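Z., the sequence and structure:
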Amino acid sequence: MSQTRELAAAIDIGTSHTRAILGRFTPDNKLDILAFGEVPTQGVRNGVVVNIDEAAESIRRAISILEQATNLKIRKLYAGISGQKIGNRPYSCYRMTEGNEVTQAIVKGLADEARRHAIQPGEKIYHLVPTEYVVDGELEISKPVGIAGRRIDARFNIVLASENYEKNLTRAIEKAGYGVAAVFINPFVQGTVCLSQDEKEAGVVLLDMGAGTTGISLYYENKLRLALELPFGGNVISNDIREGCNIIPRHAEMVKVNCGFAMTELAPDNKVAQIPEVEGWPGKEISFRSLAGIIQARVEEILEWVNFQLESTGYMDKLGAGIVLTGNGSNLNGLDKMVSYMTGLDVRYGKPNVAMKEQLFNEQLTTPGSANLLGILIHGLHNSRNQKYPAGMVDAVVQEEAPQPVVAPVKKKSRSLYDLVGKVKDSFDGLFDETEQK
């Protein structure tokens, strides 16, 4: 039981794929992954559950892969939330100190006040990030407890989302037969996996380009200043290709992945993509340049929204570490050059840099698309560690022995009855013998 209590299961319900993982921390704080599962997603649009029954089936199939691989029964899951109604709200408040010293109780009171007054109807606060404390006019204090002063001001960045996101997600998980241990905001957990402390200190943006959403996480001075999602991603690019080239959705996704370029000038002008004939649709050829023109138009639109969000924070000129690209949508050829051109910042591709015990699932978990899943698992494991009596999320399956057939004992006949029947039989036998002799 003690070994299973160390385990945690996490699930990332994306627009295109649902991924599940089972793991734990080793004594030297390495991540030990026991099982990984991935299935196509149904019932999710732009990162939000819209059909509970279909989403529940995707969850059930993904978790069953973990259970079959480990012979364990998973009870509860950690999950992540996506959606365009993820937002940030700044909040400031102050307190007068008692005894001219800032205490832990005062700091906790400031955080409690922010949680009470910053929320609006239909919202839920998920993460409260203190960005700055000011004690008697002294700015940029990160740890105010114990500092002498008469007044302390606190400034928070509150990460919140529509409470309906969690309700629908919880219903889907429960309908699949599991419980919810905790829920995190995806743009909040991604930075744990793909960004270094130096990058967060210098100023960096994590741009997660998924199938249905584009997540933005901005860090400066090692604090999260912005966490939100835009309601479009790689699917809108595929849809533009489908409409512009008059092909079926499956072929649109295929040519985007295999032949697509984010910038027209990067695409070769002497190559064409061959679209096969299928189900009455005639085969055709699409030039790489024409395909890149369709893709570039949509990528520019997405990046214009990204620029707008970054400039609204006031940190655009303080991002010393530039932009880190993650998500399966970041695999588009030349996307890094397009992002750098549109934002004027340095760009690199990000992959998980988490220390792992064994690279059993190296191919699946070292890709840009696994940032969400690993971030949810790591935050879930820390959440379990911080609980005094963590509830067991995983149970060992007890192998029951096959029941043995039960044979009913044969009852012995009564002695007197046996003797009576025997005597009657002997009498009849003697009667027939005498008749035959006569």
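Residues 206 and 324 are 5 Å apart (CA to CA). The chain has a mean pLDDT of 86.

Let me know what you think.
H.
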